[in-house]
């Protein structure tokens, strides 16, 4: 599960259907070559996901239709993920908890039951190279909820063993965004993974 799949649960089913109606269907295929234009699209949208197709086309020196088709393909192939972050302290879920755990991760049905039973889970990531083989990221409404979280997780997935837990009261950066104390974006850090870090 990715954080891009997590929902705030603020929209009703009709509203959710409306905003996803025009989304390209996901159909991961054989990886394609990520071109220089794809890189520019990725970096540009990382800086401002609301950049218009007109502006993207102008920066790339191609037509709007070309940009639209390429974006649709990148999204459908899951080469590019779009996500909308919220100001965590302002949305009613101000507490973040990271949990390192061990469980049989080959049992997909059991993991799906866990995700369904604890909808506050934002991400569940497989790990390698240590005792913990799962990292679970959870958003909570209060510190009080953190106390009962471990028992909720192990009730949903009895074979889960929680190894460690950390509570974060505030993030200063998320997904390339520098955040103010209220969790709002105030600036960006370019996420150009192809550039030389020196």
Please, could you describe this protein's structure?
By secondary structure, the chain is an alpha+beta fold. It folds into two domains: 3-76, no CATH class; 95-168, Alpha-Beta Plaits (2-Layer Sandwich), CATH 3.30.70.920. 33% of the residues lie in helices and 19% in strands. The chain contains six helices and seven strands. The strands form two sheets. It has a four-stranded antiparallel sheet with strand order 2-3-1-4, with helices on one face. A three-stranded antiparallel sheet has the order 5-6-7, with no helix packed on it. Strand 5 and strand 6 (177-179) form a beta hairpin. It is globular and about 55 Å long. This is Lrp/AsnC family transcriptional regulator. GO terms for molecular function: sequence-specific DNA binding. InterPro entries: Tscrpt_reg_AsnC-like, WH-like_DNA-bd_sf.
Largest sheet: 4 strands, antiparallel
Number of domains: 2
The count of β-strands is 7
Q: Reading side by side through the largest sheet, how are the strands ordered?
A: 2-3-1-4
What would the average pLDDT be, to the nearest integer?
86
- Structural class from helices and strands? alpha+beta
Summarize the SSE layout with pairings.
Elements: H1 13-20, H2 36-47, H3 53-60, H4 64-76, E1 95-102, H5 108-117, E2 121-126, E3 134-140, H6 143-156, E4 161-168, E5 173-174, E6 177-179, E7 185-188
Helix pairs in contact: 3-4
Question: Can you describe this structure in just a few lines?
Answer:
One of its GO terms (biological process) is response to amino acid. 33% of the residues lie in helices and 19% in strands.
């Amino acid at each position: 599960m990715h954080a891009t799949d997590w929902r705030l649960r603020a929209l009703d089913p009709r509203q959710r259907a409306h905003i996803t109606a025009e989304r390209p269907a996901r159909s991961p295929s054989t990886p394609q070559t990520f071109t220089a234009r794809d890189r520019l699209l990725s970096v540009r949208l990382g800086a401002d996901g609301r950049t218009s197709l007109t502006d993207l086309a102008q920066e790339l020196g191609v037509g709007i239709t070309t940009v639209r088709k390429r974006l649709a393909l990148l999204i459908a192939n899951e080469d590019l993920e779009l996500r909308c972050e919220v100001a965590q302290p302002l949305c009613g879920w101000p507490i973040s908890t990271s949990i390192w755990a061990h469980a049989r991760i080959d049992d997909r049905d059991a993991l799906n039951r866990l995700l369904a039973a604890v909808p506050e889970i934002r991400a569940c990531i497989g790990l390698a190279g240590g005792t913990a083989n799962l990292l679970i990221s959870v958003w909570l409404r209060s510190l009080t909820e953190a106390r009962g979280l471990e028992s909720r997780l192990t009730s949903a997935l009895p074979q889960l063993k929680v190894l460690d837990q950390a509570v974060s009261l505030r993030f200063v950066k998320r997904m390339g965004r520098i955040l103010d104390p209220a969790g709002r974006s105030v600036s960006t850090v370019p996420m150009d993974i192809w550039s030389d870090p020196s």
